[in-house]
Amino acid sequence: MKKEIKCGEFLESLSDYVDGVLGDSLCKEIETHMADCGDCRIVVDTLKKTIYLYHETSVKAEIPLDVRGRLFSRLDLDDFIEKGNSTQKDVTF
Amino acid sequence: MSEGNQQELSLQLLKSGDRAEIARLVDRHSTNIYRVALKMLANSQDAEDVLQNTFLKAIQALPRFEGRSSLSTWLYRIAVNEALTTIRRRKPEIQLASKVDDDEDNELLLTQFSDWCCIPESELMSSEAQNHLDKAIQQLSEKLRVVFILRDIEKLSVRETSETLNLTESTVKTRLLRARLRLREELSAYYGERLEKEKI
Lengths: 93, 200
Prior knowledge:
The complex is a heterodimer of chains A (93) and B (200).
Chain A: H1 14-18, H2 24-36, H3 38-59, H4 65-74
Helix pairs in contact in A: 2-3
Chain B: H1 11-15, H2 19-41, H3 44-61, H4 71-89, H5 92-96, H6 121-124, H7 127-138, H8 142-153, H9 158-165, H10 169-199
């Protein structure tokens, strides 16, 4: 009889699972387990969402124009500063 | 960015000190380097210093660049080292605050099980939520934080992250899992509380 995977047993494989690089066999075991385990399903869904949110909220922004300008000046590349897009969203923290 | 900026950079021109090519290199990578520095340091002045020092050092070292890693990985490595140096220069008490999760052998704990995926994206990404995301990432030790930033924000592969940080792929995976789970816990507590308030 096939041994059923328990909550916590797949924690170490969680990153590989959400990255889609886990082997088929373990992947199937996790999905079988999640079909009957609401908590584990929530952990996987919210983990994926966490990664998505950090990426999405970070990568849309461009370097602020003043920071870019000072960088080009510091590198003696002033003559290569092009006019940027004034409607851009700046990288913020 | 100019249209021609997405053309392949010429390593030969870069190594020979061609200023137009160096300007293209800077333009192509400055947003990513600034973002990494800002996420690492949470301080725009420090991040700008790291940005400038990264490119100053890179331009100086370009003639010796051997191309064993990509230019992008190489720049990330310089930037991360600059950011870590800045962190070490800061007052000891700031570093002590993040010592708690330095131990990679700590047991992985899951305590939050609220399903907040149903919250509309506009609320998940509100400025208040964004502040919480920023605070949560700062609570990670720099060891975990840098791996999460490179892998999940910059989307470097595990191999590229390991090359950038001079770590084994296994260590990168271990730290990444811990960082991800800790951030998930933090976000689940925050968004879970919002869900509870909405019920009331």
